[in-house]
Amino acid sequence: MTPFITNDLLLRVIRFLKFESGRTAVPLLSWWIAASIERYDRSLVASDAAVVPIPLHRVRRIERGYNQAELIAREVASILRIKVDKYLLRRKKKTKPQSKLSASGRRLNVEKAFTAEKDDLRPGRDIILIDDLITTGETARACVRALQEVSLSAVMVAAAGRSR
User: Does the structural domain 4-162 have CATH classification 3.40.50.2020?
Assistant: First the structure.
């Protein structure tokens, strides 16, 4: 679920957030994502759901200084009054940047890149997986697969934008 179809302005905002320390973009993007979630499923608001950011590999996080999906996830969780769980999902494999790959290359790049922490996942707990941008959806699919390996919980994927 995304509030925006990707256009040039949204791509500039996402690049600003990711590559230019543009943290000031987080509140607005998060508000739109939270509003979309509320419109889609009001029962998630103030529920026992967990907001989970798409994790960055530790090397990329150190290079960037933060995980933009985590910043958005924290803000969305605050708006919806839901807990954020940044430890539920972990990126165990350092991958190439998805933006530089073809659709099939993206799938192979993130295959088995994520693992879910079974001890932290309560069965039946709804999960809202947060990313900044969805293009082919391969990263989100890989994360959902990792989560489903340890639980049958429902997973909603939310981001600021998606490709057309």
Answer: yes
